[in-house]
Amino acid sequence: MSRKVVEIAGRRLSLSNLEKDLYPSYGFTKAHVLAYYRRIAGFILPHLKDRALTLKRYPEGVDKDYFFEKRCPPHRPAWAHTAEVRRDDGERTTACLVNDLATLVWVENLASIELHVPLARAASPETPDAMVFDLDPGEQAGILDCARVALILRDLLSRLRLTSCVKTSGQKGLHVYVPLNRPETTFEGTKQFSKAVAVILQKNYPDLVTARMAKESRKGRVFINWSQNDAAATMICVYSLRAREKPFVSFPLEWRELEHLAGEDDPEKFQIIHAEAVRRAETMGDLFHEVLLKQQRLPHL
Amino acid sequence: MAVQGIWSGTISFSLVAIPVQLVKAVEPGRISFRLLHGKDYSPLVRRMFCPQQEKAVPSEEIIRGYEIGPDRYLPITDEELESVSPERSRTIEIVEFIDMDEVDPIYYDHPYYLVPLKGGEKSYRLLAEAMRQTNRAGLAKFVLAEREYLVAVKSREGVLALITLHYSEDVLPDDDIQPKEETPAAGDKGRIKKSISRMMGDFNPGKYADERREKVMDLLKRKAKEKAPVEAPAVEAEEGEGPADLIAALEEVMRKVKKNR
């Protein structure tokens, strides 16, 4: 196995197997994955910071077995930040906090192509910073249907004086985030609210939307997965690569662009590939920065 | 603030104060299993159960009691306990330097590393080096997680390690363990001594591995190849849509949204 020692901000890291083709049908090696994350680091790090990372590792490439790891591998470097977190069965485990470039490069060296994080920070695991609507198209539905649902959601939320942001999942869906960033927020509150919103959309657009998880009701519709508003759930981090045939990114879109894309009939145009992601982020800045900053309160209705 | 180390503060003696952070030094590589419901593979969770009422008790109804006799308790609140807890240490104040060889390993409780924080690197290096050369360990009292510990700080190849020690009252007596004296047969003692000298080695922990762990890992890998994993059922939402007034208010807003679209 080939090794290469690099130094990042004074931390020495031994990178291995850089020539391994992790996206074989596209030709994208571990070296490419590392290069992507180094370029996007300034944008993704604020969104990973202080959150218990779930690694989704693809050591043999995206078309082979992967494994989820909530526990930070014990062979981690001494300087890697970690947090003690409680799993939902009550056991405690040590999770990685990707708070700097060196740690990001280290987890990517483990072929952790996808980076998943909770909606709350490790120090306040019961306080979500945002409410999320995970729009997941069922069979015979697609990202264009998700775009229609996302736009309805935006309109409904803005009537409630709530700003929202949207990103692609990097797969077939869209994620709508409502920044909250207030210490009194609870998952109980965001779950109840998002579920009620999902139910209302289902009632008003029964052919387009379902609020139910059952496979049958999802056929031809967009499932609004409100149950992601939970301390135990994780979402793919904005700017993370996805393990698909091509290195697509979970990437933020402006609402204007989503309106435009919803009018065109081309689902391919929703997919932002690695190079495009870097180019856009560097020219447009972090379209998701409000998710970390804007303070909003769910209205008492 | 991120939970990065277990504790941070300073380690000090006489006029030296070094900012440090306490981190874990060991992590047993135990393979843990989730407990599932054998009928539908749902992961199980722990709940506190009241046998009297035959139901799970929510956390806000759980209190602490000290058992003074059968079915008799002294209830005690978190605030009361806190009022007698020792103040959290800001410093690890070394009071003596001892010869670590004099500490019987039975006193060793749990090991940690001390990591120098910004500005402390130079004095950290000096202290670690001086302790290594003199083969001395620092003894200190230290409060961690509401418990007061006696700790030894020793140098380990330039790294300071902190070991919490048991108090002497925690160590159980070994009085009755040694067998009654009997005159050993003349040759026996010599034979055992010889066997020992034949089997002498240097302590090299890297030579040994947890073989059961390796076997369990192999078993898991084999199973992953042979058989698809079982899946927990998707958690179907509890029925109900939410509070009626919230639904009604959202319905009203939805009507306006639809009118404007």
Give a written overview of the molecule.
- The complex is a heterodimer of chains A (301) and B (261).
- Chain A is 31% helix and 24% strand.
- Chain A is built from eight helices and 18 strands.
- In chain A, the strands form six sheets. In chain A, strands 13-14-10-12-11-17 form a six-stranded mixed beta sheet. A four-stranded antiparallel beta sheet of chain A has the order 6-5-9-15, with no helix packed on it.
- In chain A, helix 1 packs across helix 2.
- The radius of gyration of chain A is 19 Å and the shape is globular.
- The mean pLDDT of chain A is 94.
- Chain B is an alpha+beta fold and 261 residues long.
- In chain B, strands 1-2-8-11-10-9-7 form a seven-stranded mixed β-barrel. In chain B, strands 3-4 form a two-stranded antiparallel sheet. In chain B, strands 5-6 form a two-stranded antiparallel sheet.
- In chain B, strand 5 and strand 6 form a beta hairpin.
- The radius of gyration of chain B is 29 Å and the shape is extended.
- Chains A and B meet through strand 7, helix 3 and helix 4 of A and helix 5 of B.
Shape of chain A: globular
Strand content of chain A: 15-25%
Stretches of chain A where pLDDT is under 50 for at least 5 consecutive residues are: none
The low-pLDDT segments of chain B are none
| Mean pLDDT over the full residue set of chain A | 94
Radius of gyration of chain A: 19 Å
Secondary-structure element series of chain B: EEEEEEHEEHEEEHHH
Give the structural class of chain A. Answer: alpha+beta
Task: Quote the distance from N terminus to C terminus of chain A.
Answer: 60 Å
The SS-based structural class of chain B is alpha+beta
Mean pLDDT reading of chain B: 86
Question: Which term fits the overall shape of chain B?
Answer: extended
Give the helix level of chain B as a range of percent. Answer: 25-40%
Which chain pair shows the most residues in contact? Answer: A-B, 40 and 38 residues
Order of helices and strands of chain A: EEEEHEEEEHEEHEEHEHEEEEHEHH
